[in-house]
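Field reference: sequence -> structure
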Amino acid sequence: MCSMTRIAFFIKRLAKIDTQRFKKTFHDLLILTGKSRVGLFVDLLVCGIRYNAGYMDYKIARMDRLNHAQRKTVITRGVSNDIVKRMNDKAYWRYFDDKCVFNATFSKWVNRQWLRADSSLTAETLAAFCAGKGPLFIKPLEGSSGVGIERAEPKDFQDIPAFLKRVRDKGDCILEETVIQHPDMARLYPGSVNTVRVATLLGDKAEGIVYAFVRIGNGRVMDNVDAGGMAARVSLDTGVIDTVAADKQGHEYARHPLTDAPITGFQIPYFDEAKAMCLEAMRVIPQVRFVAWDVAITPDGPTLIEGNSFPSHAVPQFAAHYPDGIGILPEFERYIAI
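Structure field:
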C-alpha cells in the first residue's frame, strides 16, 4: 500500500474514531508501556500512518516493544481490510453472514438441528422443534463476537407462548441445538463449547491453511475473546497448543484459571479431520477465498459452527503468541503477495 493510500486510510479511520474507547485504551497503554503521554501519542501516530495500525492493533500486538522490522510483520487493520477486499467478493458474503444460509450451504458439516425464527414462526412449529431437546442457543441471523446470543433451557420450552414471544422479541434469529463437545475439550473448560478457528486461503501463490488457534471460555457460555474468553495457537503439524493462552486484556495462562487444566501442550482431538473438513469446505464458495472457520470438536469428530468472511486480524496475533516479535504476515505471504 503506497504512502498516500496509508495516509488516506489513517485519516478515514481517525474521522470515525470512538473517542471514549480511545481515551480508555490510551490510559491503559500509558500504564502498560511506561511511555510518556507525548511519546505514546507520537508512536501511535507513527504506527497509524506507517503500518495502518489502529490503537487496538498497537495494544494487542504490543507494538511498543517492536522494532521497525518486527512491526512490518504485523497484520494491522488496514492490511487486513485490504486482504479481505482482494480475496472475498462481497456479493458472496451472505453465504457466511446469514447463519441460516450458512447452515444450509454447508449442511454436510453442520451436524445439528436448527430452525429459522422470524415473524412467520408458529407456536406449533416451535413446539415441535423443541420437543425432546436439551438446551438451545438463540442467535441473531447476522453478527459476530457473540453479541446477542442467548441460551435457552428445557424449562423455557414448557411455556411455548412465552418462549415464542421471547424469540420473536429478538427479531429474525436462528435456534440451534447445543453442540456436545469432546470430553477432552470439555476438560479445558466445560462451561462453553471451546472451538478451533481454522483459517483457509485460496491464494494466488498457494492454497491451504494459514493458521489455527483454539478459543477457550472463561466464566461464560461463550468462548469468544470479546466475551471474556482466551485464545492459544495450535500447531498445524501436530494439533498441539504450542503457546500460552491469552485474553484481550493481555493476561497469559499456561493453565486455565478456573479448571486448572493445562493449556500449553494440549492435544486437540480429531485435528487432522478438522483440517481436512475445512480444506474441503473452502471450495464450496470459491468467490470467498479467505475464510476463518469455527470448528467444534465432538466425540464423533469435527463439526462446523460458522465461517467468517471478514476474519478478525487481531486474535491470531496476540503478543503472547509471538514472543520473537514476528507477526503473522509472513504466514500469509506464503499464499498471497502483500
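Note: The chain has 13 helices and eleven strands.
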